[in-house]
Amino acid sequence: MKKYAAFVCAAALMLFATGCTAKEASGSNLEETSTILQAQLPKDGDEIAVITTSEGVIKLQFYPEEAPKAVENFKTLAKSGYYKDVIFHRVMEGFMIQGGDPTGTGTGGESCWGEDFEDEISPKLHFYRGTLAMANKGANTNGSQFFIVQNKEVTEQGINTIRETRDSNEELGITIGEEFYTLDKLFPEDVLNYYTEHGGSIELEYIFGKPYTIFGQVFEGMDVVDKIAAAEVDAKNNKPLKDIVIESVEIVNYESQN
Predict the structure, then answer these.
(1) Coil, helix or strand for 15?
(2) Number of domains observed in the structure of the chain
(3) What CATH number does residue 130 fall under?
(4) Could you give the CA distance from residue 195 to residue 127 in angstroms, rounded to a whole number?
């Protein structure tokens, strides 16, 4: 019955993929999702990333408990200087900015282990505005490329689709790993409200079959992300006509201003 419900849910939601909402799942303590993890600032002493670009500085926090391999990979590459002078090769205003490929083509790059690594999906993390996630070419093909969600808005149709689907059948859900999660647990009202208030790209959620690993969040510098996203691009591949360069990525300890 659960497998059938999961299939029906995924199929129904896919019909609305052009303007829909979703939330992913994995892990057992879903009550904790009522507190939006990505809305919280880092704690003093936490390792953060300071990305200095030709357009300004972006600061990101990490979620090592939710995506340990993705966090380790990014930190290791950053500390080795891998991202220095790499460009943002794909920019789509109203969606995201993408970088991390040393070839600048969108086809290169590799992980710190020299091979692809698996996806890591967490029920506590969503594709809100400012989300840092791994770019890939399919399931379990994570390397060095990453993207930051820039979308300032979420469609009302998407929010309503998820809410109505969730409320219409309490048994609908999806299986992640070995766990089955109903939509009411995956999409509590605070998650949908946060999307509405802050924006994001809910179409990237795992329930739509999109295996993107979230491993961080911008907490300072979204104005820089917006500036990069607004760059003039080649209409064929969304590559900025003028290079937008990652000058450095520093991994440092966070210190609050209090």
Answers:
(1) coil
(2) 2
(3) 2.40.100.10
(4) 8
Q: Are residues 158 and 147 in the same domain?
A: no
Of 48, 52, 78, the residue nearest 63 (C-alpha): 48
d(CA 136, CA 216): 16
Tokens representing residue 257 in the block: 């201003």
Domain assignment of residue 182, given as a range? 2-29+154-196
- Pair (220, 110) in one structural domain: yes
Contacts 24+ apart (CB under 8 A), 176-183: 176/24, 176/25, 176/26, 176/121, 176/123, 176/206, 177/26, 177/121, 179/25, 179/26, 179/27, 179/28, 180/2, 180/6, 181/25, 181/26, 181/30, 181/123, 183/9
Q: What is the pTM of this model?
A: 0.87
- Residue 20 shares a structural domain with residue 127: no
Nearest to 202 by CA among 211, 192, 213, 217: 192
Q: Which residues contact 231 (CB under 8 A, 6 or more apart)?
A: 91, 240, 241, 242, 244
Residues 84 and 158 reside in one and the same domain: no
Interstrand relation of 173-176 and 56-62 (parallel, antiparallel or unpaired) = unpaired
Digit-coded pLDDT (tens) for 57-113: 999 999 999 999 999 999 999 999 999 999 999 999 999 999 999 999 999 999 999
Per-residue pLDDT at 48 exceeds 70: yes
For residue 61, being part of any structural domain is answered with yes
Write the single-letter amino acid at 197: E
Tell me the per-residue pLDDT of 233-253, one tens digit each, with 9 for 90 and over.
999 999 999 999 999 999 999
Q: Is the domain of 67 the same as that of 189?
A: no
Distance CA 161, CA 15 (A): 10
Same domain for 177 and 125: no
